[in-house]
Design goal:
Strand order of the largest sheet: 1-3-2-6-7-5-8-4
Strand content: 25-35%
Distance between the termini: 27 Å
CATH class: Alpha Beta
Number of strands: 8
Structural class: alpha+beta
Order of helices and strands: EHEEHHEHEHEEHHEH
CATH architecture: 2-Layer Sandwich
Number of domains: 1
Radius of gyration: 17 Å
Helix content: 25-40%
Largest sheet: 8 strands, antiparallel, barrel
Shape: globular
Length: 238
Protein backbone atom coordinates (compact mmCIF):
# COMPACT_ATOMS: atom_id res chain seq x y z
CA UNK A 1 0.00 0.00 0.00
CA UNK A 2 1.23 3.49 -0.89
CA UNK A 3 0.04 6.68 0.80
CA UNK A 4 0.36 10.22 -0.47
CA UNK A 5 -0.47 12.72 2.28
CA UNK A 6 -0.80 16.42 1.47
CA UNK A 7 -0.79 19.19 4.07
CA UNK A 8 -1.71 22.84 3.62
CA UNK A 9 -0.24 25.28 6.17
CA UNK A 10 -1.73 28.73 6.68
CA UNK A 11 0.26 31.10 8.89
CA UNK A 12 3.84 32.17 8.26
CA UNK A 13 4.83 30.49 11.52
CA UNK A 14 3.28 27.18 10.44
CA UNK A 15 4.98 27.38 7.05
CA UNK A 16 8.38 27.96 8.62
CA UNK A 17 7.73 24.99 10.90
CA UNK A 18 6.87 22.84 7.87
CA UNK A 19 10.09 23.85 6.14
CA UNK A 20 12.02 22.72 9.21
CA UNK A 21 10.24 19.37 9.05
CA UNK A 22 12.04 18.58 5.82
CA UNK A 23 14.94 17.78 8.12
CA UNK A 24 13.29 16.96 11.45
CA UNK A 25 10.63 14.56 10.15
CA UNK A 26 13.32 12.46 8.50
CA UNK A 27 14.37 11.28 11.96
CA UNK A 28 10.83 10.05 12.66
CA UNK A 29 10.68 8.00 9.47
CA UNK A 30 14.18 6.62 9.89
CA UNK A 31 13.13 4.86 13.12
CA UNK A 32 9.49 4.13 12.20
CA UNK A 33 8.46 0.48 12.20
CA UNK A 34 6.74 -0.95 9.12
CA UNK A 35 7.40 1.97 6.74
CA UNK A 36 9.26 1.07 3.58
CA UNK A 37 10.19 3.70 1.01
CA UNK A 38 9.35 7.28 2.01
CA UNK A 39 9.91 10.82 0.79
CA UNK A 40 9.22 14.29 2.18
CA UNK A 41 8.34 16.75 -0.58
CA UNK A 42 7.57 20.38 -1.18
CA UNK A 43 5.45 21.75 -4.00
CA UNK A 44 5.38 24.51 -6.57
CA UNK A 45 2.98 27.42 -6.73
CA UNK A 46 -0.48 26.97 -8.20
CA UNK A 47 -1.07 23.24 -8.43
CA UNK A 48 2.62 22.55 -8.07
CA UNK A 49 3.66 22.54 -11.73
CA UNK A 50 6.01 25.53 -11.47
CA UNK A 51 9.62 25.98 -10.33
CA UNK A 52 8.59 28.59 -7.74
CA UNK A 53 8.27 26.91 -4.30
CA UNK A 54 4.92 27.01 -2.53
CA UNK A 55 5.64 27.30 1.19
CA UNK A 56 2.03 26.38 2.06
CA UNK A 57 1.78 22.84 0.61
CA UNK A 58 3.97 19.90 1.64
CA UNK A 59 3.68 16.16 1.14
CA UNK A 60 4.65 12.81 2.63
CA UNK A 61 4.80 9.76 0.37
CA UNK A 62 5.29 6.35 2.00
CA UNK A 63 4.94 2.64 1.31
CA UNK A 64 3.54 0.07 3.76
CA UNK A 65 3.15 -3.72 3.85
CA UNK A 66 -0.67 -3.62 3.81
CA UNK A 67 -3.71 -1.32 4.02
CA UNK A 68 -4.32 -1.79 7.74
CA UNK A 69 -0.75 -0.83 8.61
CA UNK A 70 -0.89 2.17 6.31
CA UNK A 71 -4.08 3.55 7.87
CA UNK A 72 -2.86 2.93 11.41
CA UNK A 73 0.36 4.86 10.89
CA UNK A 74 -1.21 7.73 8.94
CA UNK A 75 -3.82 8.13 11.68
CA UNK A 76 -1.70 7.46 14.76
CA UNK A 77 2.02 7.97 14.08
CA UNK A 78 3.28 11.05 15.99
CA UNK A 79 4.86 12.61 12.89
CA UNK A 80 1.55 12.56 11.00
CA UNK A 81 -0.33 13.85 14.03
CA UNK A 82 2.13 16.74 14.43
CA UNK A 83 1.70 17.74 10.80
CA UNK A 84 -2.11 17.57 11.03
CA UNK A 85 -2.19 19.72 14.16
CA UNK A 86 -0.22 22.47 12.43
CA UNK A 87 -1.95 22.23 9.04
CA UNK A 88 -5.22 23.96 8.24
CA UNK A 89 -6.23 20.97 6.09
CA UNK A 90 -4.81 17.65 5.00
CA UNK A 91 -5.71 14.80 2.68
CA UNK A 92 -4.34 11.29 2.26
CA UNK A 93 -5.02 9.01 -0.69
CA UNK A 94 -4.41 5.26 -0.36
CA UNK A 95 -3.02 3.56 -3.45
CA UNK A 96 -2.34 0.02 -4.64
CA UNK A 97 0.48 -0.09 -7.23
CA UNK A 98 -0.55 -1.87 -10.43
CA UNK A 99 2.48 -1.11 -12.62
CA UNK A 100 5.82 0.60 -12.20
CA UNK A 101 9.00 1.01 -14.19
CA UNK A 102 12.13 2.99 -13.50
CA UNK A 103 13.76 4.01 -10.25
CA UNK A 104 13.63 6.67 -7.55
CA UNK A 105 16.84 7.42 -5.64
CA UNK A 106 18.33 4.29 -7.13
CA UNK A 107 15.58 1.92 -5.99
CA UNK A 108 12.31 0.48 -7.28
CA UNK A 109 9.96 1.75 -4.54
CA UNK A 110 6.60 0.25 -5.51
CA UNK A 111 5.76 -3.46 -5.33
CA UNK A 112 3.02 -4.05 -7.88
CA UNK A 113 -0.01 -6.28 -7.38
CA UNK A 114 -0.89 -8.05 -10.63
CA UNK A 115 -4.18 -9.38 -9.25
CA UNK A 116 -5.39 -5.85 -8.59
CA UNK A 117 -4.15 -4.68 -11.98
CA UNK A 118 -6.34 -7.23 -13.71
CA UNK A 119 -9.50 -6.02 -11.93
CA UNK A 120 -9.23 -2.24 -12.35
CA UNK A 121 -9.02 -1.87 -16.10
CA UNK A 122 -12.18 0.24 -16.16
CA UNK A 123 -11.94 1.82 -12.71
CA UNK A 124 -10.32 4.98 -11.32
CA UNK A 125 -6.58 5.19 -11.76
CA UNK A 126 -3.77 7.34 -10.39
CA UNK A 127 -0.54 8.08 -12.22
CA UNK A 128 2.78 9.19 -10.75
CA UNK A 129 5.86 10.27 -12.65
CA UNK A 130 9.12 11.21 -11.01
CA UNK A 131 12.27 12.51 -12.68
CA UNK A 132 15.67 13.88 -11.83
CA UNK A 133 16.19 16.57 -14.44
CA UNK A 134 19.63 17.07 -15.93
CA UNK A 135 20.95 20.52 -14.92
CA UNK A 136 21.92 21.28 -18.53
CA UNK A 137 18.27 21.26 -19.68
CA UNK A 138 16.56 22.87 -16.66
CA UNK A 139 15.48 26.03 -18.48
CA UNK A 140 14.28 24.07 -21.50
CA UNK A 141 12.24 21.73 -19.27
CA UNK A 142 10.58 24.43 -17.18
CA UNK A 143 9.70 26.54 -20.22
CA UNK A 144 7.47 23.68 -21.40
CA UNK A 145 5.72 23.05 -18.07
CA UNK A 146 3.22 25.99 -18.08
CA UNK A 147 1.76 24.86 -21.42
CA UNK A 148 1.38 21.29 -20.12
CA UNK A 149 -0.25 22.56 -16.92
CA UNK A 150 -2.79 24.54 -18.91
CA UNK A 151 -3.71 21.53 -21.03
CA UNK A 152 -4.18 19.15 -18.10
CA UNK A 153 -6.07 21.86 -16.24
CA UNK A 154 -8.55 22.13 -19.12
CA UNK A 155 -9.09 18.37 -19.31
CA UNK A 156 -12.56 17.64 -17.84
CA UNK A 157 -11.59 14.09 -16.91
CA UNK A 158 -8.76 14.74 -14.48
CA UNK A 159 -10.12 14.48 -10.93
CA UNK A 160 -6.98 15.72 -9.18
CA UNK A 161 -3.47 16.82 -10.04
CA UNK A 162 -0.46 18.19 -8.19
CA UNK A 163 3.24 18.66 -8.73
CA UNK A 164 5.61 18.01 -5.82
CA UNK A 165 9.31 17.31 -5.44
CA UNK A 166 12.22 16.73 -3.09
CA UNK A 167 14.29 19.63 -4.42
CA UNK A 168 13.13 22.69 -6.39
CA UNK A 169 14.03 22.70 -10.09
CA UNK A 170 15.95 19.39 -10.14
CA UNK A 171 13.42 16.84 -8.86
CA UNK A 172 9.86 16.78 -10.13
CA UNK A 173 6.97 14.48 -9.20
CA UNK A 174 3.61 14.70 -10.96
CA UNK A 175 0.56 12.97 -9.52
CA UNK A 176 -2.88 12.81 -11.12
CA UNK A 177 -6.14 10.88 -10.69
CA UNK A 178 -8.39 9.86 -13.60
CA UNK A 179 -11.75 8.08 -13.88
CA UNK A 180 -10.19 5.30 -15.97
CA UNK A 181 -7.10 4.32 -17.93
CA UNK A 182 -8.67 5.28 -21.25
CA UNK A 183 -9.16 8.94 -20.31
CA UNK A 184 -5.62 9.16 -18.98
CA UNK A 185 -4.21 7.58 -22.13
CA UNK A 186 -6.22 9.94 -24.32
CA UNK A 187 -4.63 12.92 -22.58
CA UNK A 188 -1.13 11.46 -22.77
CA UNK A 189 -1.37 10.63 -26.48
CA UNK A 190 -3.20 13.72 -27.73
CA UNK A 191 -1.05 15.96 -29.90
CA UNK A 192 -0.06 19.06 -27.94
CA UNK A 193 2.51 20.36 -25.43
CA UNK A 194 2.48 17.18 -23.34
CA UNK A 195 3.09 14.87 -26.29
CA UNK A 196 5.82 17.17 -27.62
CA UNK A 197 7.52 17.22 -24.22
CA UNK A 198 7.44 13.41 -24.03
CA UNK A 199 9.12 13.18 -27.43
CA UNK A 200 11.76 15.68 -26.33
CA UNK A 201 12.45 13.68 -23.17
CA UNK A 202 13.23 10.64 -25.30
CA UNK A 203 14.99 12.33 -28.21
CA UNK A 204 17.13 14.69 -26.12
CA UNK A 205 17.65 12.51 -23.02
CA UNK A 206 16.42 15.06 -20.47
CA UNK A 207 16.32 12.92 -17.32
CA UNK A 208 19.09 11.44 -15.21
CA UNK A 209 16.59 9.13 -13.47
CA UNK A 210 12.90 8.51 -14.05
CA UNK A 211 9.99 6.49 -12.70
CA UNK A 212 6.47 5.88 -14.03
CA UNK A 213 3.82 4.18 -11.90
CA UNK A 214 0.08 3.55 -11.93
CA UNK A 215 -2.17 2.78 -9.00
CA UNK A 216 -5.66 1.60 -8.14
CA UNK A 217 -7.46 3.94 -5.72
CA UNK A 218 -8.03 2.21 -2.37
CA UNK A 219 -9.66 5.15 -0.53
CA UNK A 220 -8.86 8.44 1.12
CA UNK A 221 -9.17 10.44 4.32
CA UNK A 222 -9.32 14.15 5.06
CA UNK A 223 -10.20 17.01 2.72
CA UNK A 224 -8.44 19.15 0.12
CA UNK A 225 -9.93 22.46 -0.82
CA UNK A 226 -12.78 21.62 1.55
CA UNK A 227 -13.79 18.41 -0.28
CA UNK A 228 -12.52 14.94 -1.06
CA UNK A 229 -10.92 15.01 -4.53
CA UNK A 230 -12.37 11.54 -5.08
CA UNK A 231 -15.88 13.02 -5.04
CA UNK A 232 -15.33 14.10 -8.64
CA UNK A 233 -14.83 10.46 -9.61
CA UNK A 234 -18.21 9.62 -8.09
CA UNK A 235 -19.90 12.40 -10.06
CA UNK A 236 -18.22 11.20 -13.25
CA UNK A 237 -19.40 7.65 -12.66
CA UNK A 238 -22.94 8.88 -12.03
Amino acid sequence: MVTLSLFRFGSARARIWALGQMGAARLSFMVMRDVGFWKLCGSGTGEGFTPIPNTAVWAILATWPDAETARKHVEEAPVYQRWRRRAKEDWTVYLTPTSARGSWSGTAPFETDRSVSNTVQNGPIAALTRATIKPSILLKFWRRVPDIQNVIGDDPNVAFKIGIGEMPWLHQVTFSIWPDAASMAAFARAEGPHARAIRAVRDEDWFREELYARFAIAGDSGLWGGVSPLAKLERTAA
